[in-house]
């Protein structure tokens, strides 16, 4: 989301103070002045010299200086510093430099990170800004490292600024958040209409109230009815998966009638084994 350049300095009168907003019921929740959560005057705003030119108040030809300190071994990058007034309000994060005669209103979703940091021994708010040029790749974004140091650079003053920014950011969630997290329903069964589960059978649905049949289950090749339900569910109501049941049926056909069936002792005694009478069966008495 792009920032908005402003050329006229904002005024506290342009906003409704948060205390006033919270103490009364507004006549309307639409329109009206933005709510001012926090205001600073005489603060300092800094960005790296290499990122100049993106924000109007930090032009490429602006004078730069070395940073206050460097924690690394490499030479620290020069920075551009401006004295600014800060307006943390319900619509955007706004800073204005009287020296540059320019300011910027930054949409909260463009502030990807904001945190408290130590800058030259002073408590500051560091934020990373991401401004989209309308594309989707990383090359279509301008990233800015912006730091704000309150004039009274105490931990309390910095914390108040941080909390105000957090409260306003919560009012503007990123509209693109969660777009890449769409739920995958490809492995699920979705039934249209309202169907009641058949008691005692897992996954078996009753027919519709108008007499229509329930939807077919996966792998069934058609409708499941009272006549063929045993082909798809065992006696405990469990779905017979991966063709195991069909494979058993085909194996039984190859082995012949009665394959896979347990026969009782009386039946074995009557029929015999391998075509001959079982020796345990009763023989006719002969003289």
Automatic annotation (TrEMBL):
It is found in: Cytoplasm; Nucleus. Keywords: Cytoplasm, Nucleus. GO terms for biological process: mRNA cis splicing, via spliceosome; spliceosomal snRNP assembly. GO terms for cellular component: cytosol; pICln-Sm protein complex; spliceosomal complex. It comes from the Eukaryota. PANTHER family: CHLORIDE CONDUCTANCE REGULATORY PROTEIN ICLN, METHYLOSOME SUBUNIT PICLN. This is Benzoylformate decarboxylase.
